[in-house]
Specification:
The protein has two domains: 34 residues; 71 residues, Arc Repressor Mutant, subunit A (Orthogonal Bundle). By secondary structure, it is of the alpha+beta class. The longest helix has 27 residues. It has a three-stranded antiparallel sheet with strand order 1-3-2. β2 and β3 form a beta hairpin. The protein contains four helices and three strands.
């Protein structure tokens, strides 16, 4: 019976250590776990476009902000942002850029 209690305690400690390792791994990159949420990714991409209107932004710059960048851009388009993209092939490699074109305000 004593060995059963010791075994359960060892399993509990191991599970706690694994949870701590997972949480610490998320923090090592400098981005807390909550920063990886869909909402945060969308906000980061939106901020990039808002700070750079009418500027072609290379896809690698956008990918730094969100792994599923395409879904986040789709969400921004659904919310009314006019985001266009272009692709070019150079020496067999496809390159993509995105540009936010804000509506002009008529006075």
């Amino acid at each position: 019976m004593n060995s059963q209690i010791e075994m359960e305690e060892a399993i509990r400690r191991n599970n706690l250590e694994q949870e701590t390792t997972i949480n610490m791994d998320a923090l090592k990159g400098g981005i807390p776990q909550e920063k990886n949420s869909i909402e945060s990714q969308t906000k980061r991409i939106k901020n990039l476009f808002m700070k750079n209107p009418n500027v072609w932004i290379p896809l690698p710059e956008i990918m730094k902000l969100a792994a599923q960048y395409n879904a986040r851009i789709y969400q921004l388009r659904k919310k009314g942002m006019d985001i266009i993209n272009k692709t070019e092939k150079e020496m067999g490699t496809k390159h993509s850029w995105y540009k936010y074109t804000p509506e002009e305000i008529n006075s």
